[in-house]
From TrEMBL:
Residues 23-35 have a biased composition (Basic and acidic residues). It holds the Pfam family zf-dskA_traR. Keywords: Metal-binding, Zinc, Zinc-finger. Residues 23-42 are annotated as: Disordered. The keyword Thylakoid does not apply. This is RNA polymerase-binding transcription factor DksA. InterPro entries: Znf_DskA_TraR, Znf_DskA_TraR_CS. Residues 77-106 form the Zinc finger DksA/TraR C4-type domain. A zinc finger (dksA C4-type) spans 79-103. One of its GO terms (molecular function) is zinc ion binding. It comes from Halomonas fontilapidosi. The keyword Ribosomal protein does not apply. SUPFAM superfamilies: Glucocorticoid receptor-like (DNA-binding domain) (SSF57716).
């Protein structure tokens, strides 16, 4: 469990750095758009991509923080939905998972809101 916690903490730090870089990029881009219409289009597309990447990093960071909280509470290797142990191979592949494979495969509408 200690190794997984270290892995999650490293991932958390990486995601925070990534999120801050995206945020800094967006703040830099606050100036006027290029006068060339083609360049404007490219700039707007780039901004959309950065926005999507930032949202993805934020979502993953939220999952990592939740998994770390569960580890601190002694629940890190138990499925949040059914309470059964999460397979070590799954935890290795997806260290921030909070659901066993069976529960993760259920449609989200039938779960209590886990992952």
């Amino acid at each position: 469990m200690a190794h997984r916690k270290q892995e999650l903490e490293a991932l958390r730090d990486e995601l925070i750095d990534r999120f801050e870089r995206y945020k800094a990029h967006k703040e830099q881009r606050g100036g006027p758009l290029d006068k060339d219409m083609e360049e404007q289009s490219i700039e707007l597309q780039n901004d959309d991509v950065i926005e999507a990447l930032q949202q993805e990093a934020e979502d993953e960071l939220r999952q990592v923080m939740h998994a770390l909280e569960r580890i601190d509470n002694g629940e890190g290797d138990l499925c949040e939905e059914c309470g059964e142990a999460i397979d070590a191979r799954r935890l290795s592949a997806v260290p921030y998972t909070t659901l066993c494979r069976d529960c993760a495969e259920l449609p989200e509408a039938t779960r209590g809101g886990g992952e």
